[in-house]
Amino acid sequence: MRIFLTGATGFIGSRIVPELLAAGHQVLGMTRSDAGAAWLNAAGAEAHRATLEDVDSIRAGAANADAVIHTAFDHDFSNFVANCEKDRRVIAALGSVLKGSNRPLLITSGTGLGQGPDHGIAREDIVNFQHPNPRVASEQEGQAQLEAGVNVGVVRLPQVHDTKKQGLISPFIEISRAQGLVGYVGEGRNRWPAAHVDDVAHLYRLAVERAEPGARYNAVDEEGVVVRDIATVIAEGLNLPLKSLTPEEAQAHFGWLAMFTSLDLTASSKLTRERLNWTPKGVSMLEDLRNMDYAAAVA
Fold it and tell me: Taking CA atoms, which of 165, 196, 208, 270 is between 20 and 30 Å from 278?
């Protein structure tokens, strides 16, 4: 297939590119920069210049593709709500091109959207359109496009990691470095799901090849890593003190990240593994955190 991949030079997208090429697919990768275009060309893909604000160019990228994988997202969390609404507009633009065909559109969301009102483990067969996480906009628009005749599937991400980046844990590390201590809320027994970036890239490839309308996949290897354990490893890596914080202290310490730090966000990938025959093989999050270079700035 000829696959249009948004976010092709990002943390996850740059791992999806070789995964797709190795499986014999052609890749048209969206990028904002000359450096990104050069990287895509060197990798054996074709570059398509566009930004998330340029929906006409995004539509043009999707127009001649057999499938679309949408991983691009503006990760400026100080404008999280606005960026989630931007994602809604991009999904609508992609859907307008694919409507009426069987060409798959694979969008990206978070595992929390599979957590029901009981705040239990997030599952693929649950979709909570009333979830307080603003990222619900992506799944709301994906559902609207599905009902309009677009072949939409969803990959829900946990904390995706290697030794360079770890989802929300990367800013957690930088905040800890700036504050001079590593904090966690209360007893720190809440958990976050995780998966290695290479396993996540493999899942995207399997999902786009399956092209099942309405499918939701949890890209989860570890159902829940205890936040205090995460903080302990980071404290050792940064050589900083470890401290329990009250919710009020956490707000001042973490800033925008405080909304996530006390949440218990476990997630299952049982159905994903069964449907896609997906078996994660990457190392654990804690192992990657132990092996990262804390002297280097986190991107």
Answer: 165
Q: What is the Cα–Cα distance from 37 to 8, expressed in whole angstroms?
A: 10
Distance CA 112, CA 185 (A): 19
Burial of 216 (0-12, 13-18, 19+ CB in 10 A): buried
pTM for the full predicted model? 0.95
What whole-number distance in Å separates Cα of residue 114 and Cα of residue 158? 11
Residue among 180, 164, 160, 182 at smallest CA distance from 172: 182
Q: In what order do the strands lie in the sheet with 222-226?
A: 159-161, 191-196, 222-226
Helix (H, G, I), strand (E, B) or coil at 74: coil
Strands 2-6, 26-31: pairing is parallel
- Reported as a single tens digit per residue, the pLDDT across 152-185 is 999 999 999 999 999 999 999 999 999 999 999 9
Sign of CA dihedral 87, 88, 93, 94: positive
pLDDT in tens, 215-255: 999 999 999 999 999 999 999 999 999 999 999 999 999 99
76 exposure class (CB count in 10 Å sphere: 0-12, 13-18, 19+): exposed
What number of other Cβ atoms are within 10 A of residue 94's Cβ? 27
